[in-house]
Amino acid sequence: METAGYAVLSRQSGLMRELQLIANNVANANTTGYRQQGVIFSEYIRATDHGSLSMSAAHVRDSSFTQGAITRTGATLDLAIEGEGFFAVITPGGERLTRNGAFTTSAQGDLVTHDGYPVLSAAGGPVFVPPGAADLAVARDGTLSSQGLPIGQIGLLRPPDTKELERDGATLFRAPNGTGPVEDPAIIQGALESSNVDPVLQLARLIEVQRAYEMGQGFLDREDERQRAAIKTLFT
Amino acid sequence: MRALKIAATGMSAQQMRVEVISHNLSNMSTTGYNARRAEFADLHYQQVHRAGTISASDGTMLPTGVQLGLGVRPAAVSVNLAQGSSSATGADLDVAIEGKGYLEVTLPSGAAAYTRDGALKRSADGLIVTSEGLHVAPGITIPADAKSLSVNQQGEVYAYFDGTVPAQLLGQFTLTGFTNPRGLEAIGGNLFTETEASGPPLQGTAGLDGLGMLRQGYLEESSVDPIYEITELIEAQRGYELNSKVITAADQMLAATVQVR
Predict the structure, then answer these.
(1) Whether the predicted model's global pTM rises above the 0.90 cut
(2) B199 with B125, same domain?
(3) Contact at 8 Å (CB) between B149 and B227?
């Protein structure tokens, strides 16, 4: 008799999880290179003494890797990727991928992210920007040049499948199954790729989640009344 | 209710963005000011189920896992080092730096600071100083009877005198560059000081060393683009509202939970 309650509860906790996810998407609506996440509800069946109980389970997945808007900033070392691929950076935990191309140079002259992680070149080493280099330009394929002379190349990598990427915070992703080079890299200098969060969609989903949750609570209320009435009838 | 806290990180991030924008706008007419931009990064992820782990119930491998993000944090306020436009002032001692170098000045403490504000003046004892009276390296003194001054692209200062006396070389401004100028610490008054992140100062000569040239009679305007800033401001305001909507929704869901008997 209590199975209905369990089914609703599993949905309610899934909706809570989705709310948390929407909150994270909205909070990161202006985080350069952020990729929005979604929730997928699936059926979850458990065998019980009286047949099976069908519940729902919310899986967070579905990171959307669609292109974010490319915004001009004019800064020499702001780079945006058009199309597929990621910049590779070295963190204390190992190699990570990111679409956030807001770079700067370190005190030693290496190209780094704002968290200080070195950016990898196409050859797999650090990218050195000489302190006196004038007229720095980054070509579409990542070639870094000063006054027309090439001085290095920024590498673009991609995992075999974007679905397997794990989030690591700071718009970094971990590729558990390795990475390979991007065949036709397209880097735009002086621009950044905005977050791909669609605020309208998030807001619509937020309202939907809220209403679904209230409906669930109403259901629990009525279920409670029904059980009370049943017990009253049986024991009077 | 983590959603409440997550939305709160979003609201404080947008608030910080508004602060950076208002700082930019208030320095719209500050000589040599470089616009700043707030950069954000997503916070840690809670690994509810790590991708690639084996599901306990039936032994299959989880292809994606469950990762719940915990909000946003400010990552940096980065300085856009793009050259501001030069405006002609015609003053002898106004010099604009066309390039990425800085003029070195000496703070009252004796320490060195760096500036791109080339609105220079002459002190009571003839030294070339900034608007705030700080000595500009390497300490050039203008003779009292000098009729006019000329600063060439290399930063050499010449004085002209009445009569037939030829122009006299008084000294040469040095320009200083940094490996990572974004790492300089702003101390107010258009001044910057060296940090661990900027690297040591690299002294050079204007016109050489890739540090740029000096242009007499001009000042570098602030690089703030008011139209860009206003659109950023609108975006930040809407972002703030959106986050507050999440808080409202989370609150109402919490209220619904509490009301259940």
Answers:
(1) no
(2) yes
(3) no
Please report residues of A whose CB lies closer than 8 A to that of B35: none
Q: Is the same domain home to B128 and B199?
A: yes
Q: Verify whether the Cβ–Cβ distance A107 to B179 is below 8 Å.
A: yes
The ipTM of this complex is 0.79
Paired tokens of A154: 């920024």
> Which among A15, A31, A65, A128 is the top mutation candidate for probing chain B, defined by the most B β-carbons within 10 Å of its own β-carbon?
A31
Distance from CA of B49 to the nearest CA of A (A): 10
User: Residue B259: its chain A contacts at CB < 8 A?
Assistant: 217
- The C-alpha angle A127, B40, B26, rounded to 5 degrees, equals 105
Mean pLDDT, to the nearest integer, of A210-222? Answer: 92
Say yes or no: B228 and B209 in one domain.
no
Residue B120 has pLDDT above 80, yes or no: yes
Instruction: Identify the CA nearest to A26 among candidates B192, B246, B45, B233.
Output: B246
Distance CA A89, CA A110 (A): 12
Percent residues over pLDDT 90 in chain B: 49
Say if residue B243's pLDDT is above 90.
yes
> Are the C-beta atoms of B30 and B190 separated by less than 8 Å?
yes
Same domain, B214 and B246: no
DSSP character at residue B179: S
Q: Which of B27, B76, B77 is nearest to B188 (CA)?
A: B27
B10 burial type by CB count under 10 A (0-12 exposed, 13-18 middle, 19+ buried): buried
Distance CA A3, CA A7 (A): 6
Task: Say yes or no: B199 and B99 in one domain.
Answer: yes
Judging contacts by C-beta atoms under 8 Å, the chain A residues touching residue B63 are 163-164
Q: What is the separation, in whole angstroms, between the first and last Cα of chain A?
A: 20
> Where do we find the tokens 């290496």?
A110
Chain A nearest-CA residue for B34: A75
Q: How do residues A69-125 score in pLDDT, each as one tens digit? A: 998 888 889 999 999 999 999 999 899 999 999 998 888 889 999 888 999 998 888
Domain span at residue B30 reads 2-81+224-260
